[in-house]
């Protein structure tokens, strides 16, 4: 495969960012939006072509004679050379998961570009202030995310990891005149940045001991006779582990250094993927425009953590302690987020917590994946769920955006009974809910079922736990669905239009994503993506008993939601009064934000920052002020010497000259 | 009585001191200029005397003196031009009242 198309995939969005960012204000809103969408459409076509080539062309660099998928380094350019060994490169790495991510990112991004053409304007068709800037930032994000997934070395991953964080910051704070948006963007940036500290240390430890940044050298073995082609190999990962154990200090604080490195890298993933306890930024990130939430905070950026763990999966297999940590963190987060999602009022918050819960599903699935069990089913299930979740969660967010656009509020109490007014939104949203709830034949059913199967292979506790969370997922999604689309509709005030469906630019993405959510489950994903590239029959590992149980759980949860929320009735408030403490804790998100506020404000600020501020203000500033004051005073004192009287100057000169003469003579004597 | 270098140097020293005294004390700028010329001429005499008595086979001191006389003439012309301009602007060439150029 030649270099042109991969280079273009990265170059076009970067160019669009610079072009729209620098010249956007010179062109009309419509032109800027159209150009951004067309640019994204081009990348979409190129990425589909690349992914198609990778999966189906059968070229020797992509698939070997045994039908195993290979990793191909399309190009690898030296970017920074510090020393002989420490070289930072930028490249393009094609393997099953990066090809899949290319498809996911460009699809969702294109849909969001198209959707924003309708969303970012009011009912009179007036575009929002900063519309061009919005498209420039969307292009920046697409560039960063694409660069992240195709990174052939962990340092490039890190660079683009920070770039997606920065573009997320810019887009959350898009309404920068709104204080809540500004603080949400800062929160997102600081929390993820804090997590990235661990990530950076993990990278440094890993590359210091392992001697390389390249994924191919960490987890794969090169294929004979083909340049730039490698194949996932546990032998290489074992070699890396041996380098750790043979080093001077293989153990640090009771755990092996490799475990430390992997856990620290996972800390970065926790920040990006909003795992507890670093999840607090994601619900607040909903302050950004809804298309941004759909693109960044549901479908693409937040799964970067899952993606990175999947990238380093052979190394994680070397240290199952790290995988166990991932499983526990993921399971706790999934349950916690599902609990909170059951009582939230803001529809975007429900979706945000649902996202956290679903990403935790993917994490658990990676954590329980073992090659011994169904050839690493969990890995494939995780990637499959990533794919289907991206589609249906983007659909749900875009649907929520359409509702917010029509109603002008995020609060479900302002909605109720919209199914008559907004049929397209209603049907697509329902498909999204069915998909996330895991009802056959929608896509979420298949991916979630495989996750539950792999959990069962790990331990029955994990299986029961995750099945419970899956049931809660179905419950809170249908609670949301009924509260928005059923109940008695509000009276339309005099002089207002009744809410209505949106223009085609907004409907088309909804319909497309709904169609994908209907059929994505039938993609033979196991043949395309697996942890070692070895294809296997998807249906052979399909556990019908697990499927039946999860389907029953989902249906039961939906029935419960129907009973409680289909019509206005006293049942929800009765339940709430039965367990008031639980309800309050869920409603306040288990007081995580308050805990963080307490730690930062009452402990860190008071005991560390205030003394530091005092030192800065009094000692450092004081020293500098003293220099300035002394200089000022001295110059005031000697100022009269410059009197303007030439003859006085002659006097000074004469006295000086005589003094020098006297000194010289004294010295000579 | 043989005339030694000291016989020349003492009048030159007196001339120089007179020049310095005049330059510091006179209010009139023309008088200050004259004092300046006096100092220059004293220095010129020194040049000639040291050349004549210490290195009689060389001529550098003589040429330096000629050079300094030429420069002094040019400098005088310049100074007078400045003084005339000051007089036009301030109607006055009293150096003690011309103290605009201070802090």
What is the strand content of chain A?
Answer: under 5%
Distance between the termini of chain B: 57 Å
What share of the residues of chain A lie within helices? Answer: 55-70%
Name the structural class of chain A: mainly alpha
Number of strand elements of chain A:
6
- In the predicted model, the low-confidence regions of chain A spanning at least 5 consecutive residues are none
**How many strand segments of chain B?**
0
Question: Helix segment count of chain A?
Answer: 26
Account of the protein in words:
The complex is a heterodimer of chains A (669) and B (103). By secondary structure, chain A is mostly helical. Chain A has helices at residues 4-23, 29-56, 96-119, 131-149, 154-172, 179-210, 215-219, 234-245, 257-272, 281-284, 290-299, 304-311, 313-318, 320-341, 347-368, 377-407, 423-437, 443-458, 460-485, 504-519, 525-528, 544-565, 571-578, 580-587, 592-638, 646-668, and strands at 71-81, 87-94, 220-222, 229-232, 251-252, 255-256. In chain A, the strands form two sheets. Chain A has a four-stranded antiparallel sheet with strand order 2-1-4-3. In chain A, strand 3 (220-222) and strand 4 (229-232) form a beta hairpin. In chain A, helix 3 runs antiparallel to helix 11, helix 4 (131-149) packs antiparallel against helix 5 and helix 16 runs antiparallel to helix 17. Chain A is globular. Chain B has a domain at 27-92. Chain B has helices spanning 5-25, 29-54, 60-90. The longest helix of chain B has 31 residues, at 60-90. The chains are: A mainly alpha (669), B mainly alpha (103). The interface between A and B is small, with 11 and 12 residues.
């Amino acid at each position: 495969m030649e270099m042109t198309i991969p280079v273009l995939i990265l170059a076009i969005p970067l160019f669009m960012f610079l072009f729209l960012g620098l010249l956007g204000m010179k062109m009309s809103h419509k032109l800027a939006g159209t150009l951004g969408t067309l640019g994204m459409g081009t990348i979409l076509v190129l990425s589909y072509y690349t992914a198609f080539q990778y999966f189906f062309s059968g070229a020797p660099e992509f698939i070997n004679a045994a039908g195993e998928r290979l990793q191909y380094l399309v190009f690898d350019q030296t970017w920074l050379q510090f020393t002989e060994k420490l070289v930072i490169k930028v490249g393009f790495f094609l393997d099953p998961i990066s090809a899949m991510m290319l498809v996911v990112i460009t699809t969702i991004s294109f849909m969001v570009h198209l959707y924003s053409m309708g969303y970012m304007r009011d009912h009179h068709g007036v575009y929002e202030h900063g519309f061009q800037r919005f498209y420039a930032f969307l292009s920046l994000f697409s560039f960063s995310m694409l660069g992240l997934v195709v990174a052939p070395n962990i340092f490039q991953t890190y660079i683009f990891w920070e770039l997606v964080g920065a573009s997320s910051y810019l887009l959350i704070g898009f309404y920068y005149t709104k204080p809540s948006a500004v603080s949400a963007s800062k929160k997102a940036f600081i929390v993820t940045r804090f997590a990235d500290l661990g990530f950076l240390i993990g990278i440094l430890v890993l590359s210091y001991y392992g001697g390389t940044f390249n994924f191919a050298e960490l987890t794969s073995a090169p294929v004979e006779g083909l340049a730039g082609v490698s194949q996932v190999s546990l032998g290489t990962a074992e070699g890396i582990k041996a380098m750790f154990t043979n080093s001077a200090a293989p153990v640090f604080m009771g755990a092996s250094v490799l475990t430390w490195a992997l856990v620290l890298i996972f800390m970065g993933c926790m920040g990006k993927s909003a795992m507890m306890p670093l999840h607090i930024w994601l619900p607040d990130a909903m302050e950004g425009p809804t298309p941004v939430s759909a693109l960044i905070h549901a479908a693409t950026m937040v799964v970067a953590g899952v993606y990175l763990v999947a990238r380093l999966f052979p190394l994680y297999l070397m240290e199952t302690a790290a995988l166990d940590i991932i499983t526990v963190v993921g399971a706790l987060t999934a349950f916690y987020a599902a609990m909170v999602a059951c009582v939230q009022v803001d529809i975007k918050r429900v979706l945000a917590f649902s996202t956290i819960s679903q990403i935790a599903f993917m994490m658990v699935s990676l954590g329980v994946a073992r090659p011994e069990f169904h050839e690493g089913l969990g890995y494939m299930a995780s990637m499959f769920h990533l794919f289907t979740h991206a589609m249906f969660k983007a659909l749900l967010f875009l649907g929520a955006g359409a509702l917010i656009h029509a109603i002008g509020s995020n609060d479900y109490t302002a909605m109720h009974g919209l199914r008559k007014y907004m049929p397209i939104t209603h049907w697509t949203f329902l498909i999204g809910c069915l998909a996330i709830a895991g009802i056959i034949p929608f896509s979420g059913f298949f991916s979630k079922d495989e996750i539950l199967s792999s959990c069962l292979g790990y331990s029955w506790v994990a299986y029961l736990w995750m099945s419970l969370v899956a049931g809660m997922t179905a419950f809170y999604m249908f609670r949301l669905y009924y509260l928005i689309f059923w109940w008695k509709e509000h009276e339309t005030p005099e002089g207002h239009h009744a809410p209505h469906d949106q223009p085609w630019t907004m409907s088309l993405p909804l319909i497309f994503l709904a169609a994908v959510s209907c059929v994505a489950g039938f993609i033979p994903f196991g043949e395309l993506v697996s942890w070692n590239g070895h294809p296997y029959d998807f249906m052979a590992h399909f556990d019908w008993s697990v499927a039946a149980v999860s389907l029953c759980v989902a249906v039961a949860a939906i029935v419960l939601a129907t009973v409680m929320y289909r019509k206005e009735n006293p049942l929800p408030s009765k339940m709430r009064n039965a367990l008031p403490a639980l309800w309050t804790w869920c409603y306040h998100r288990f007081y995580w934000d308050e805990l963080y506020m307490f730690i930062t404000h009452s402990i860190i600020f008071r005991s560390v920052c205030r003394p530091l501020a005092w030192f800065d203000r009094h000692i450092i500033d004081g020293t500098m002020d003293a220099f300035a004051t002394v200089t000022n005073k001295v110059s005031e004192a000697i100022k009269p010497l410059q009197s303007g009287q030439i003859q006085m100057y002659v006097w000074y000169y004469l006295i000086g000259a005589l003094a020098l003469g006297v000194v010289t003579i004294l010295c000579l004597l | 009585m043989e005339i030694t270098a000291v016989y020349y140097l003492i009048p030159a020293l007196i001339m120089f001191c007179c020049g310095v005294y005049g330059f510091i004390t006179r209010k009139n700028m023309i008088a200050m200029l004259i004092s300046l010329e006096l100092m220059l001429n004293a220095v010129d005499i020194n040049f000639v005397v040291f050349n004549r008595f210490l290195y009689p086979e060389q001529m550098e001191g003589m040429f330096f003196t000629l050079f300094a006389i030429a420069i002094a003439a040019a400098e005088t012309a310049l100074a007078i031009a400045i003084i005339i301009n000051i007089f036009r602007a301030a109607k006055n060439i009293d150096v003690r009242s011309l103290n605009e150029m201070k802090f």
